[in-house]
Design goal:
Elements: H1 2-10, E1 26-30, H2 42-50, E2 54-58, E3 66-69, E4 72-74, H3 78-89, H4 92-98, E5 102-106, H5 109-112, H6 124-135, E6 148-152, E7 155-159, H7 179-189, E8 195-199, H8 218-230, E9 234-238, E10 245-249, E11 256-260, H9 268-272, H10 274-283, E12 299-305, E13 310-316, E14 322-329, H11 348-380
Helix pairs in contact: 2-4, 3-6, 10-11
């Protein structure tokens, strides 16, 4: 009782519950908040100041795992895991957000409990329990994993779990969400809402890219496309990669956009500086991008004008300034995809493109340095 009184005295809030079956128009989302010293509290005030009606976590709410060696992660103990959630939940910036909007979401790998985690993770039951305690959204997930959906009149929000059933990322024949979740997803897509938003932790449609970032297994990605061909009106959301971008997917019968927002407290640029720009703008493909990538800390927003049947999407920086913006007609999500012919092309072209990119990124700079060194030695060394 004394503990409860202390919580009330210092203003700790349990947040606003998700309330379904009402129209909403303003949605914010984000991912990747490393709690090893939050260096970006202002972004959570910016999210609150944008006044979303709901905020969606797309994973990595905390980094529950820890380094044993550089870039080698091991699970943490339950006490430390819970403490990270509690410290973040009770912070001023997050309390402010909780008091202004409904919050829901899903985990990705680090809040699931381990980097690149999959179905083999032995502490996944604990990961599920702790993230649902943190979200405190009042929903009941009485099944394996934490996939769930909400209905807000003509909008359905579908959240997929890409960890609980996931095969190893190196399994070329692997599945990303499991048969139980596939069956559930198809039933969810059969309902009649005008707009359906599908959120998950991993990028879906970056099959044209090489690199270390996780993504959906190829068979799962193709299976999802077939589903979306049957059930149009979908917008995809993803996180994980520590930068923001908007993709338009050519290889589906109907137009499908994917918004990625990642890096609330850290980003590829804050970690790797100009190396990230060089890698992501030369090595990585821009095949499906609408506009630029944004490599700094960011969150995403969706604003739906139901009367005009328009969706305005943006990736915003820490100070609530839009860095990527695009307007989507809802009818566009139901019409034929004008880029479908691109998918009839031989995707080997993309592999050649990556080979040239690899040469440009990793080999050409060393050749230039070597050449400059030889010229210098030839000019200034009599012994050369």
């Amino acid at each position: 009782m004394l503990f409860l009184c202390l919580l009330l005295a210092i203003g700790i809030s349990s947040g606003r519950k998700v309330s379904e079956h009402r129209k909403i128009s303003r949605i914010a989302f984000g991912s990747c908040a490393n709690q090893f010293g939050n260096t970006n509290p202002e972004i959570f005030y910016s999210i609150a100041n944008w006044k979303p009606e709901i905020y969606i976590w797309l994973g990595d709410i905390i980094y529950a795992d820890r380094y044993s060696l550089p870039k080698i992660f091991i699970p943490t103990d339950e006490k430390s895991w819970r403490l990270k959630y509690n410290n973040f939940k009770n912070s001023n910036e997050y309390q402010n957000l909780m008091n202004t909007t409904m919050i829901t979401g899903i985990y990705d790998d680090h809040d699931y409990g381990i980097n690149d985690g999959d179905k083999s993770f032995i502490y996944k039951e604990l990961g599920k329990k702790l993230v649902l305690e943190f979200l405190d959204d009042g929903s009941i997930r009485d099944h394996e994993g934490i996939y769930h959906s909400f209905v807000f009149e003509d909008l359905k929000l579908i959240l997929l779990d890409v960890r609980w059933f996931r095969d190893n990322k190196w399994d070329n024949e692997g599945d990303s969400i499991g048969e139980e979740q596939w069956a559930w997803l198809e039933k969810e897509l059969q309902s009649g809402e005008r707009v359906k938003i599908i959120g998950n932790g991993l990028q879906v449609n970056t099959f044209d890219r090489s690199g270390p970032a996780e993504k959906w297994h190829e068979k799962s990605r193709l299976r999802l496309w077939k589903l979306l061909d049957k059930y149009p009106g979908v917008l995809l959301l993803s996180g994980d990669v520590h930068y923001g971008e908007l993709l338009r997917i050519p290889c589906s019968k109907h137009v499908v956009y994917e918004m990625t927002s990642s890096g609330l407290t850290h980003s590829v640029f804050s970690t790797y500086n100009m190396i990230s720009w060089y890698f992501l703008n030369i090595w990585q493909s821009f095949t499906f991008n609408v506009g630029k990538k944004y490599l700094h800390k960011n969150f995403g927003t969706i604003e739906i004008d139901w009367e005009a049947q328009i969706i305005h999407v943006s990736i915003r920086d820490s100070y609530n300034i839009p860095q990527i913006e695009h307007t989507i007609l809802i009818n566009e999500l139901y019409g034929p995809n004008p880029d479908i012919e691109f998918c009839q092309a031989d995707f080997k072209v993309l592999k050649y493109k990556h080979a040239l990119s690899a040469f440009a990124v990793f080999i050409l700079p060393f050749l230039l340095i070597f050449l400059a060194t030889m010229i210098f030695l030839r000019k200034y060394s009599n012994s050369f």
